[in-house]
Structure formats: C-alpha cells, structure tokens
C-alpha cells in the first residue's frame, strides 16, 4: 500500500503465490470488513497492526500491516499461524524493510524489484510455515512417546512411578465414601538373581512377576511398578476393611504370584514381603498412604514372605 500526502491510499500491489486472487474493484473492497476500523487507525497513526480475521473477497485471512516509509507492507495468509510462526512473519517482514535504505520511488524497475522481493518474502514465509509445521508434528510425536513412557513402566508395562499417584487419586474420587487398600510389595532376595545370572535374566524375572500381578482378580485396582523390585497394588471401592479381608487379600495375592520363575531351564525361587495401609482409615493422603504401606512392608521384611498391616502410632 502507498499513501499520498493526505493519507489517502494511492496504490496497492497484491501477490498470491498459491492461486490467482480475484482482482479487487477498488481499495474499498479490502477495507469493507469488520477490521477496517483497526486498519484505518493503523494507517492514520502509521503503526504496525495484526489481524486474526481479515476479509478479502469473502475469504478470511490472517494479516499483518507494517509501515515502511510513506508506504506499508501488507501480508495475508489463509493459514492461522501459531505464536512462533507469527514472530517469524514479523521478523521476515522487518528483514525486507531493512533491506531498503529509503522508501522506493514509483518507477517500473523499482516496482518490479518490489514485486519480486515480496514474492521472495512470501516464499520464505511459506517455507518457514512448513518448517514450523514439521517441527510441531515432530514435537507432538515426542510428547506422545514421552507421555506413554511416563504412564507405563518401560520394562513391565505396568503403571509407572511417574503416574501411579495420579491414577490412585482419580480412583479415590470415583469412590469417595469407600475404603481402599494399598499393598506395597518387595521381592525377597532379588539381588542375587541379578548378581549371579545377569541383568537380562533379572529383567525377565521382573517382567514375569509383573505378568503374574496382572492376573489378580481385584476390581477396581491399579497395579504399578514403584522402583526396582518394588511393586504396588491399590484396591479401591471397598465397603469395609477388617482382619479377615486383609488375610484374604494376602492369600489371593500369594496364590496368583508365588512359585518359582523358570528362565532358560533354571527355576529361580520367588517370595515377597507385603505391607498394607488403608485409605480412608489410616489416611486420605495418597503419598502418605504409600509411605505407611512401605513402613508396614519393612516390618514384614523382618520375617520375610509374609505381610503386615500398618498400625497407627500411639
């Protein structure tokens, strides 16, 4: 756009590299839209402005208008750029302005040069947009992979230590007035398996143990790997918790999980210690519940291959 000394638009130059744009009858065609007031204000004060929704011949555009001497650079694209792309547009428009020492005079050579420069700018902008879109797709893929890694333990496929507290909190909200039991499970004498047979065998041992935990018939429940050879099972939706129930849980877990694990023809013994803490009785704080079950597990660990229920101090 170019203004005369009275601020009236004298000329406009339009460039569209994607498809031929319908020729405008007059400059009023571009100003007759919902953002015209904002554009007029920018032109009168000679300032830059940005439009999220600018109408040209019935088509909605994202547009930028930047002052350049006694003229303006007007850029429009049908895409809706994100924040990073908008900054790229601003940078490239400013780079084009900076490439001129003075506003150009209106002659054929200069107009051609201006047209070609705008064409190059538009190409640069489109290339930048495609690059940003490619990077965004790459970022989205990385985020999905990271999210899967955070939610699922990479070795066993169980709920991971990054996510189990949130999963438990969600379950307790769904069963507000119910009790829950957190079982903190630690495999007895796992270290000799790694030291004697190597980490590959140790990994198979842990994955087999996790597969056995998946067969537990508790519903609703969350099965998780806490760290190393430590696992957890949270059972929710319970109407009451007593000694009979905790004993029954221990027997059910033992029946489904115990027994030697055979790896490459060698049977590795398996036993574990288990600590229990009761949600809505011992505490309603998820992290505190896990700590209480951990303490009860260490109590059971003194004997080994048994379970213990957390007891409130005092």
Detail the topology: elements first, then pairings:
Blueprint (H helix, E strand, L loop, with lengths): L1 E2 L5 E3 L15 H5 L4 H10 L3 E8 L2 E10 L2 E7 L5 H16 L9 H44 L12 H11 L4 E9 L3 H7 L1 H15 L7 E7 L2 E9 L4 H15 L3 E3 L2 E3 L3 E8 L6 H16 L5 E3 L5
Parallel strand pairs: 11-12
Antiparallel strand pairs: 1-2, 3-4, 4-5, 6-8, 6-11, 7-8, 9-10
Helix pairs in contact: 3-4, 6-7
Report on the architecture of this protein.
The protein is of the alpha+beta class and 314 residues long. It is 44% helix and 23% strand. Strands 7-8-6-11-12 form a five-stranded mixed β-sheet. Strands 3-4-5 form a three-stranded antiparallel β-sheet, with helices on both faces. Strand 4 (59-68) and strand 5 form a beta hairpin. Helix 6 (191-197) crosses helix 7. It is elongated and about 95 Å long.
Keywords:
12 strands, 3-stranded antiparallel β-sheet, 44% helix, single chain, 314 residues, elongated, disordered N terminus, alpha+beta
Strands side by side in the biggest sheet = 7-8-6-11-12
Largest sheet: 5 strands, mixed
Task: Bin the strand percentage.
Answer: 15-25%
Which structural category do the helix and sheet elements fall into?
A: alpha+beta
Give Rg in angstroms.
34 Å
Which shape, going by the Cα principal axes? elongated
DSSP E strands, number? 12
Order of helices and strands: EEHHEEEHHHEHHEEHEEEHE
Parts with pLDDT < 50 across at least 5 consecutive residues = 1-29
Mean pLDDT: 81
For the record, give the distance between the C-alpha atoms at the N and C termini, rounded to a whole number. 83 Å
Question: Could you estimate the helical fraction of the residues in percent?
Answer: 40-55%
Structure annotation, total helices: 9
């Amino acid at each position: 756009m170019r203004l005369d000394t009275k601020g009236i638009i004298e000329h406009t130059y339009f460039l569209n590299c994607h498809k031929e744009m319908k020729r405008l009858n007059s400059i009023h065609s571009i100003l007759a839209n919902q953002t015209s007031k904002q554009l007029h204000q920018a032109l009168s004060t000679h300032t830059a402005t940005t439009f999220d929704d600018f109408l040209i011949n019935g088509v909605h555009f994202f547009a930028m208008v930047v002052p350049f001497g006694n003229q303006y650079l007007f850029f429009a694209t049908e895409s809706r750029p994100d924040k990073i792309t908008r900054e790229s547009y601003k940078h490239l428009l400013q780079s084009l302005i900076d490439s001129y020492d003075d506003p150009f005079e209106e002659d054929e050579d200069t107009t051609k040069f201006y047209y070609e420069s705008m064409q190059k700018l538009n190409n640069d902008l489109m290339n930048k947009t495609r690059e940003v879109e490619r990077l965004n797709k790459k970022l989205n893929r990385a985020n999905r992979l990271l999210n899967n890694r955070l939610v699922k333990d990479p070795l066993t496929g169980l709920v991971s230590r990054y996510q189990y507290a949130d999963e438990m909190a969600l379950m307790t909200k769904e069963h507000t007035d119910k009790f829950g039991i957190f079982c903190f499970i630690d495999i007895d004498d796992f270290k000799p398996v790694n030291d004697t047979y190597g980490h590959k065998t140790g990994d198979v041992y842990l994955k087999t143990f996790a597969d056995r935990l998946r067969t537990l018939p508790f519903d609703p429940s969350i099965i998780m790997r806490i760290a190393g050879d430590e696992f957890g099972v949270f059972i929710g939706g319970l109407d009451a918790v007593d000694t009979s129930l905790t004993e029954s849980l221990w027997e059910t877990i033992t029946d489904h999980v115990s027994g030697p694990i055979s790896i490459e023809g060698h049977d590795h013994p398996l036993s574990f210690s288990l600590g229990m803490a009761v949600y809505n009785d011992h505490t309603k704080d998820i992290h505190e519940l896990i700590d209480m079950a951990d303490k009860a597990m260490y109590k059971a660990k003194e004997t080994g291959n048994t379970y213990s229920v957390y007891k409130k101090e005092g």
